[in-house]
Amino acid sequence: MSLEQPLADYEVASGALRGSRLTLYANRLVRHGGDAMETVPLAQLASVRVAFERDARKLNWAVVLLALAFVLAAASGPLQAWLAASTAKFGEHARRESFDAVLLTVFTVLGEVASILPGLAAALAAAAVALLAFFWLGRTTLTLAFAATERACAVRGRDRRLVEFAELVCDRLAARKD
Predict the structure, then answer these.
(1) pTM of the model as a whole
(2) Reading across the β-sheet that carries 21-24, which strands appear in turn?
């Protein structure tokens, strides 16, 4: 058995294939990961695509969460003040069995719920900032297309090493086609 030297290799640092290693040989591409190994003859490879992408859905969700956080934060103060004033009106002469006592209880509970709104708004804003960060980071995706299927390897951020690896695979694929 001859030991063939790899032309290039790439270790996947993030994403679904994290911990896998892609290795390019003269006539094949090998992926080692966990308990699996996959070998793809370059003759079976139809095309190679590498792209940096940002998921617009994350941006959309971040905008929605930020808008909701601002609405909750803006409504919290006036709602708490109104409920406190209403509670004070009914609290003066409310008897245990009266309708005023029921309203006092309802307003007190609503006041407690309104006091939670600023914290909820802060949590939503933090989630929106996280989504904006993931949107900004984007991902680099290497896609290998075969006759009937595709394999994709996506990593977080703009990964120059994955782009260079894809270029080497493309060069090797073009050399085989000539």
Answers:
(1) 0.69
(2) 8-11, 21-24, 28-33, 36-41
